Amino acid sequence: MEKSANYREILLAMRRDVMREISGNTLAAREMAQGDVPDIGDMSCATYERDVLLNLSEVQRQKVRDIDAALARLEQGEYGVCLGCGEEIPQKRMEVRPFSRYCVECKTEVERFGE
């Protein structure tokens, strides 16, 4: 039980950090969209930077969804079990990426062939 409580705290802290980043990126993109841009070159650069920030936010939103799914698996007693092969995901992988859904072998297969 202590182990799952520890992972729960880690996941919740990660979620808070990512939500703060999303909020900051959204605010920065909004400010860029409202800024005064003197010429077409600056406008192009500002648009690109805004798009990059918004795309980062989408990646971060996906990370929040992954963390939420990990928290749900934790509640269901399925945390740390590979969704591909059903084996326990190695501890080192869970330490590095605590919202992992797959062991390394299955993740490689998913990336190669899709989910």
Structural class: mainly alpha
Return residue spans where pLDDT drops below 50 for at least 5 consecutive residues.
none
Number of strands: 0
The CATH topology of the largest domain corresponds to Four Helix Bundle (Hemerythrin (Met), subunit A)
The global form is: flat
Terminal Cα span: 31 Å
Radius of gyration: 19 Å
Task: Find the CATH superfamily of the largest domain.
Answer: DksA, coiled-coil domain
Number of domains: 2
In CATH's first tier, which class of the largest domain applies?
Mainly Alpha
Fraction of helical residues? over 70%
Could you give the topology of this structure?
Layout: H1 2-34, H2 40-76, H3 91-96, H4 104-113
Helix pairs in contact: 1-2
Question: What's the short story on this structure?
Answer:
By secondary structure, the chain is an all-alpha fold. It is built from 4 helices and no strands.
